[in-house]
Write a structure and sequence with these properties.
The complex is a heterodimer of chains A (about 425) and B (about 300). With about 425 residues, chain A is α/β, with parallel strands linked by helices. Chain A is built from 16 helices and 6 strands. Helix content of chain B is about 35%, strand content about 30%. Classes of the chains: A alpha/beta (about 425), B alpha/beta (about 300). At the A-B interface, helix 1 and helix 8 of A face strand 6 and helix 2 of B.
Chain lengths: ~425, ~300
């Protein structure tokens, strides 16, 4: 009965929104996300080359070329000392400076008789990072090429133009037109969904399972079942919990909009939602797949909650609840790389994986419409099926309490009603 | 007139165990019905079939003269054996919620909840959460939740268990008042004294089967007044009277069981002739004795 379903949804919603958990998570998640973004910014800064170094070489000319190449490179160091021709005293003092952290390290270039390349060694106080290694390698290589070309008489001006780094512009065919491609952005969208879905399933899935178990242990369900059907109960529960989730998302969304339009965001180079790389259509798909995934997993949680008899057991199955999401995350790189491979298509149609995998495909390359439609239809059909299943298990499982139900027992319960 | 509840030949089994077997009973409007039986006899299973929480494997359940339907439940108030309330929810909110679920408007539900809380002397707890209340108080709240929508049929599973005598009396009075207003009340219990005082008709269940049922007077009249307690001074020779089946003799006091259809008045004359009688009492068998006799007899069979 609709009236009863709505009453149950209203109760579930109000009790949750008034709860401490709701207030705490509503507040903590944006703080946590802000913290993550800040940490991300911090580690971004770490991706830089060596700031100060020395070059020791017997070959004055080569040393100067390496210095020039480093200064023209992607991460120009702020100070480069050149010791050429280097003496053993220079080397000792360079060691000293590395030890006292005045310079990050030094590069020695030793000519090898009859070889085109010199022997290059990087000595530093810390283990080398990938960026620094690439920085040194590319500098030495371009210095060698430069030296050879100069030796063959190329004018220095022409040489500089030739040696400038190439900028790669990436384009992508989307909806039949070539547009700027941004794989990081596709990733960002899918990861945002994963994060939000994962968090909500953990919080609200466990929450709904707990509320089922609470009704079971406190025996409220018997009063409820004497007035209403278990289908209304489950549907009401799911709607109430869903509305709670949406309220929370709404608050977070408003905060995000507020942040995107704020002066703080502007100072970080973000002007409105558009520059976060989110389009209206994507936001729409996000809402659809989020809701579908949220209801499916909440229904699963309710079914699992109906099959246990004590609240402690809820913890044990939280892994079952999360595992399809974990699998989706593991498969994500593959799907991103092969959005139209048969495996990706099948995964994006299967309800437990559809929310993340299909959304990922939509973000990277819009799949055929029938696939998106089928995926959404299957997702919502399975939500309905899950509610039906949960209601059956609740109906009978709650009357036979005391021990955990085994799978054969659950199947028998299904036949009962 | 149609019965409010009619079970005809219902049976219910769980896995290997038979909970109820071929049970029939009727509850009339304006009556108080006692469902009796030892623990595990099948009382709760019977009640659950009445309100559709479980379905019978065989037999018919009718409510208000029609085959069972979900809508009929709006006219039923059910108090389960194991009491349940939402722990963190305020009392008034729960009562309003449960009232609304059974078809009341929110304002009406709140008004009735307040007046019932005053009637049962727990008005001060109305804004507290369930977890802050004692067990007995929670039970009263549950009781109110059952009655809020003024159901024509009130079904209570072990309503008196766990209540102190004062509150048990309060509950009994309330139930009697509801009965007087024309509501039908069914409750289950394993305590005979309550049934004896309150009920118009009973059904005694043992091992899932009705072993005794009917109106209270009728059931009792089926059992003879064949017990005599005598208090006397003097000779105990009357104990050899031919009407006596057996007896227990104490100093100046005897508990006698008469033979079937024996004449108690003749015994009284004999006692009076040989001793000074201070008390001569012809005792009706208590329901408890009937219960033990009936169930005991069956248990041996």
């Amino acid at each position: 009965m609709l009236r009863q379903t709505l009453l149950i949804a209203k109760r579930e919603y109000l009790e949750r929104v008034k709860s401490k958990v709701f207030r705490i998570t509503t507040l903590l998640v944006p703080i946590g996300m802000g913290g993550l973004a800040w940490l991300g910014g911090m580690s971004g800064h770490k991706l830089e080359g060596v700031q100060s170094l020395a070059i020791l070489s017997a070959d004055t000319h080569l040393a100067a070329q390496v210095k020039a190449a480093l200064e023209q490179g992607q991460f120009p160091p702020s100070s480069i000392q050149v010791f050429a021709p280097a003496t053993s005293a220079d080397r000792a003092s360079a060691d000293q400076e590395v030890a006292s952290h005045q310079i990050a390290g030094y590069l020695t270039l030793e000519g090898v008789p009859d070889a085109a390349q010199p022997e290059v060694t990087w000595v530093s106080g810390s283990s080398i990072n990938i960026v620094a290694k690439a920085q040194m390698e590319s500098a030495v290589r371009s210095a060698l090429i430069r030296q050879q070309l100069l030796a063959r008489g190329m004018p220095p001006g022409q040489l500089r133009e030739l040696m400038d780094p190439v900028t790669l512009k990436t384009m992508q065919i989307r909806n039949g037109a070539a547009v700027h491609s941004d794989s990081e952005r596709s990733f960002l969208g899918a990861y945002a969904l994963i994060l939000v879905l994962y968090g909500s399933v953990l919080i609200y899935g466990i929450n709904i399972a707990r509320s089922v178990v609470e009704e079971k242990t406190s025996r409220v369900f018997e009063v409820l079942l004497s007035t209403t059907s278990s289908d209304s109960l489950m549907m009401g529960k799911l709607l109430g919990v869903g509305a709670t989730g949406l309220t929370q998302m709404g608050i977070w969304g408003a905060l995000l909009l507020f942040y995107a339009g704020s002066a703080m965001a502007a100072s970080q180079g973000i002007h409105g939602l558009g520059s976060l790389g989110i389009t209206g259509a994507e936001l729409g798909y996000f809402a659809v797949f989020f809701l579908g995934g949220f209801f499916l997993y909440s229904g699963l949680a309710a079914a699992l909650g109906s099959s246990v008899s004590a609240e402690q057991e809820v913890q044990q199955f939280s892994f079952i609840l999360i595992s399809p999401l974990v699998v989706s995350v593991i498969l994500l790189p593959y799907v991103l790389g092969n959005p139209n491979a048969p495996a990706s298509v099948v995964l994006s149609l299967l309800p437990p994986f559809a929310p993340i995998i299909m959304y990922m495909r939509i973000c990277s390359q819009m799949p055929p419409f029938w696939q998106v439609g089928l995926s959404i239809a299957l997702l919502f059909a399975s939500v309905w099926g899950m509610v039906w299943l949960a209601a059956r298990i609740y109906r009978i499982g709650v009357l036979m309490y005391g021990k955990r139900a085994t799978l054969p027992e659950m199947l028998r319960w299904l036949r009962y009603s | 007139m149609d019965a409010l509840v009619e079970l005809s030949h219902v049976s219910k089994s769980y896995e290997a165990k038979t909970a109820v077997h071929d049970l029939s009973l009727r509850i009339e409007a304006g009556s108080m019905f006692g469902l009796l039986g030892p623990n595990g006899a099948g009382k709760t299973s019977t009640i659950r079939m009445m309100i559709g929480i479980t379905l019978p494997d065989a037999g018919q359940v009718s409510l208000f003269g029609k085959p069972f339907s979900g809508e009929a439940l709006q006219r039923v108030g059910y108090l389960p054996e194991e009491r349940g309330l939402y722990k963190k929810m305020k009392i008034i909110d729960q009562l309003v919620f449960l009232g609304e679920l059974r078809g009341l408007g929110a304002l009406e539900a709140a008004r009735r909840a307040k007046s019932w809380c005053e009637r049962l002397q727990i008005a001060e707890s109305i804004n507290k959460r369930t977890e802050e209340l004692s067990k007995g108080m929670q039970q009263k709240i549950q009781f109110i939740a059952t009655l809020l929508h003024d159901p024509e049929l009130i079904i209570m599973d072990e309503p008196f268990s766990g209540l102190d005598p004062v509150n048990a009396a309060l509950l009994q009075d309330t139930l009697l008042e509801l009965k007087k207003q024309g509501n039908a009340v069914l409750f289950s219990t394993h305590r005979m004294d309550q049934v004896e005082k309150l009920c118009d008709s009973i059904c005694l269940i043992h091992r899932g089967e009705a072993v005794l049922s009917g109106g209270m007077r009728e059931v009792k009249s089926r059992y003879e007044r064949n017990r005599v307690n005598v208090q006397y001074e003097g000779d105990d020779g009357f104990l050899r009277h031919p009407a006596i089946a057996d007896y227990k003799s104490y100093a100046g006091h005897a508990e006698i069981r008469l033979k079937p259809h024996a004449d108690a008045q003749d015994l009284l004359r004999t006692v009076a002739a040989t001793a000074v009688v201070t008390k001569f009492e012809l005792v009706e068998p208590s329901l408890e004795e009937i219960f033990i006799e009936t169930v005991g007899g069956r248990a041996d069979a």
